[in-house]
Write a structure and sequence with these properties.
The chain is an all-alpha fold. Helices cover 80% and strands 0% of the residues.
């Protein structure tokens, strides 16, 4: 599933499709950031022990592109891990309503 389809599915699942575009973008961006943080924790367990310090240093720099490049190199299915975390967050939000 590409990013646009994922975004549309998240909007539909959360029932936010009718909200203004800026609000939707903000909600999805927050969910994405939270998913990235959760994925980072999951990825940390999969990264070889010798690379964990490098991963944490990149994470602290705050450069998401550099972080994604590193994670893709070290954990080939990292995008699946992130998507899984996005859906976990969406499910949690939906179940709270």
């Amino acid at each position: 599933m590409d990013d646009n389809k994922l975004k549309e599915e998240v909007e539909r699942t959360l029932g936010i499709s009718s909200l203004p575009e800026g609000v939707k973008e903000e909600l999805i961006a927050r969910a994405g950031q939270l998913a990235l943080e959760r994925a980072l924790t999951a990825v940390m367990e999969k990264v070889p022990e010798g690379k964990r310090e490098e991963l944490m240093a990149i994470s602290k720099e705050g450069h998401q592109n550099k972080l994604m490049e590193f994670m893709k190199k070290e954990v080939p299915n990292v995008e699946d891990v992130i998507k899984s975390e996005v859906w976990a967050i969406v499910t949690e939000i939906k179940n709270k309503n």
